[in-house]
Design goal:
alpha+beta, N-terminal domain of TfIIb, 3 helices
C-alpha cells in the first residue's frame, strides 16, 4: 500500500491512528505500507510568503506556522489568465506537523514492524535536515 504527497500531514494525530489501523487491518501478512510526510524541519523552514509569476498564472502562497497547535495553515491565491482577464481561485489547507518519532510510536502500537524511515525518496536514512520522510513499514505476523 502506498500513500504519497503528504496525505498523512492532512490528518491530526487521532485520525492518523485510525488511518494506520485501517491500513494495517487491510494489508496481507508481511505486507508493506509506504508513505511520506513533510517534516518538522521543512515546515519550520517555510514559514513565509512565496510569490510565483508564471506565464498563465500568478499566485501568492502564504504560510502560517502555529507552534501551539503544531499546524501549518496555507492560503494560496491563484490568479489564472482567462483571455483578457484574470480569475482568482483561493485554496486553504491545514497540515498537521508530525514528528518522525511520534509516528514511529503510533505505527509500532498499531502492530507494524521493521519500520524504516528514509530521507525523501532516497535510500539514505532520515536525518534532522530531511524535508521529507518516507516510511516503509511491514505488517507483523
Amino acid at each position: 500500500c502506498i500513500c504519497c504527497c503528504d496525505r498523512v500531514n492532512y490528518l491530526n494525530e487521532n485520525y492518523a491512528i485510525v488511518f494506520f489501523e485501517k491500513v494495517y487491518n487491510h494489508l496481507k501478512k508481511n505486507g508493506k505500507f509506504i508513505f511520506d510526510i513533510s517534516t518538522e524541519y521543512k515546515y519550520n523552514s517555510m514559514n513565509e510568503t512565496y510569490v510565483y509569476d508564471e506565464e498563465e498564472v500568478f499566485y501568492i502562497w502564504e504560510n502560517n506556522l502555529d507552534k501551539n497547535t503544531n499546524t501549518m495553515s496555507m492560503e494560496i491565491n491563484f490568479f489564472v489568465k482567462d483571455k483578457d482577464k484574470y480569475s482568482r481561485i483561493t485554496e486553504l489547507q491545514t497540515h498537521y506537523i508530525h514528528s518522525v518519532l511520534s509516528l514511529e510510536k503510533i505505527l509500532n502500537s498499531v502492530g507494524f514492524t521493521e519500520i524504516k524511515v528514509y530521507d525523501g525518496y532516497t535510500e539514505n536514512l532520515y536525518n534532522d535536515t530531511s524535508i521529507r520522510a518516507t516510511f516503509v513499514c511491514k505488517k507483523g505476523d
